[in-house]
């Protein structure tokens, strides 16, 4: 599919997404700091206070709140991305399980029921597992086990590919969040540094260099928080992607086992010599075929018989 056709089909979504991105950047650019820069005296007093507090949960929580406020508006968008990433991670933990793709033991139970000629039991088991990908594939194989092997193989390949692609698509938002979070953090940092330099420029020769250091320190908070969101999100994206490929491999093996047992095995049994129902094998007591009809006599046979009579 060309890019032009893709644009035509998704035009109704492109405009709202572009507008939302513009609003996001505008709000992030609008005062990146929640507070004005501290004076040198306030900064020294705060540093002495932190040194005397030591580590405690209350002090850590207070520092986190202060850093969040220092980050300004950008921090709220990073918080939204972190909540969104957590939601996708929990969704993948719930839905990306082996029971949803290739339930363990299902193939063995189906083969055992088929060997016992319990077709009703096979259908009941497939109905209970109809939501799993292997259940869908096994139901299709069982229903079309008398069809051509290549056609059935192509059909079950399409069924499995559709389900696996859905799982892969549901992991892509994690990759998008892992890409956007550090970029958004860097954007907030640049806006903060611009404001810090503006403060120094306004102060002029009377300004204190510590004002610039304080502003840059606040600006870097957004970059740190963006990386804090992106690193675990990227880890989970690759973890879920690897697990999807692993489950797809198991699904392929299970489907191949069922296809070989129900189609190739049945075909071999139907064409093997000496099996019931195989015509043209009169020597086998179990064969339901008839002996081949005698070949009609030809003129050459009659001439041969005449020659034998004269010799006698």
Q: Low-confidence parts lasting 5 or more residues at pLDDT below 50?
A: 1-7, 25-40, 267-296, 302-312
Mean pLDDT: 74
Per DSSP E runs of 2 or more residues, the count of β-strands stands at 0
* Series of secondary-structure elements, N-terminal to C-terminal: HHHHHHHHHHHH
- The portion of residues assigned to helices is over 70%
Q: What is the gyration radius calculated from CA atoms?
A: 37 Å
Structural class: mainly alpha
Question: Count the helices. How many?
Answer: 12
Shape: rod-shaped
Termini, distance in Å? 87 Å
Beta percentage is: under 5%
Biggest beta-sheet profile: none
Description:
This protein is mainly α. It has a domain at 72-264. The protein is built from twelve helices and no strands. It has helices at residues 3-9, 11-29, 40-53, 57-71, 73-95, 98-101, 106-115, 119-128, 133-143, 149-203, 209-271, 299-311. It is rod-shaped. The termini are far apart.
